[in-house]
Design a protein that fits this description.
The chain is of the alpha/beta class and about 220 residues long. It is about 30% helix and about 30% strand. The strands form 2 sheets. Strands 6-7-8-3-9-10 form a 6-stranded mixed β-sheet, with helices on both faces. It has a 4-stranded antiparallel β-sheet with strand order 2-1-4-5. The longest helix has 16 residues. The radius of gyration is 17 Å and the shape is globular. The chain binds adenosine-5'-triphosphate (ATP). Pfam families: ABC_tran (PF00005).
């Protein structure tokens, strides 16, 4: 499987935020998008997720046979918000996501195993709204585990996490990559991952640094 962005441009209102963005990821690879507030990181992620139209260019996922795969069925999108109902139990929230994002080809973890994987054993019965901000973010990360999807799209995934949880998050992403997954993350904080491509949005124009195969 490959994720390929070609000459992507994104606009908000009258402002062209980025243009000429291109990168290519294969299984086991990650891309980290950096840049100052307002540079367009969230906008780019939403374009990649198919939640916003690109101004030009396109993003596509290709399977082994090179056929295009629907991004909406093969990606997890974790935005700034956790997308959980405060009044529902943690387990009920995760069970909803497990059903809603079930994959025909691969199974995720059980709800209990996912809660354990983010280090919060014992909170399944609590309303999501009872948890601290960092605990809520960790349960939002558990959502990535209860159904298996190859591409993780992560917007500020470590916001509100403490140092120990930062490491836990990096371990989760590393395990996902080792299993053949891909990840694209917008962040202000280093994610503690090695071997990532980086894409810097400057807010004026975009440049790509380092990346094995990234270009802009
Ligand atoms: N719904 C919207 N309508 C109009 N403009 C918007 C909308 N959402 C975002 N913008 C503008 O688009 C620009 C880029 O926003 P975006 O959220 O993509 O930036 P970002 O790089 O993710 O920022 P941050 O680091 O603060 O999260 C900002 O100037 C913002 O005001």
């Amino acid at each position: 499987m490959r994720a390929i962005a070609t000459n992507l441009a994104g606009r908000r209102g009258a402002s062209l935020l980025f243009s000429g963005i291109g990168f290519s990821l294969t299984q086991g690879e990650a891309l980290v998008i950096t840049g100052p507030n307002g540079a367009g990181k969230s906008t780019l992620l939403r374009v990649i997720a198919g939640l916003l139209d690109a101004d030009s260019g396109h993003f596509a996922l290709h399977g082994e046979d090179e056929l295009a795969l629907p991004v909406s069925e093969h990606a997890h999108y974790l935005g700034h918000r956790n997308a959980m109902k405060r009044e529902l139990k943690v387990s009920e929230n995760l069970e909803f996501w497990q059903r809603f994002q079930a994959s025909e080809t691969a199974e995720g973890l059980s709800v209990d195993a996912a809660i354990e994987a983010v280090g919060l054993t014992g909170v399944a019965h609590l309303p999501f709204g009872y948890l601290s901000a960092g605990q809520q973010r960790r349960i939002a990360l558990a959502r990535l585990l209860v159904s298996a999807r190859p591409l993780w799209l992560l917007d500020e995934p470590t916001a509100a996490l403490d140092k120990a949880s930062d490491k836990l998050f990096a371990d989760l992403v590393r395990a996902h990559l080792v299993q053949g997954g891909m990840a694209i993350a917008a962040t202000h904080q280093p994610l503690g991952l090695e071997q990532v491509q980086t894409l810097e949005l400057s807010g004026v124009h975009s440049t790509v640094a380092d990346g094995q195969e990234a270009w802009a």
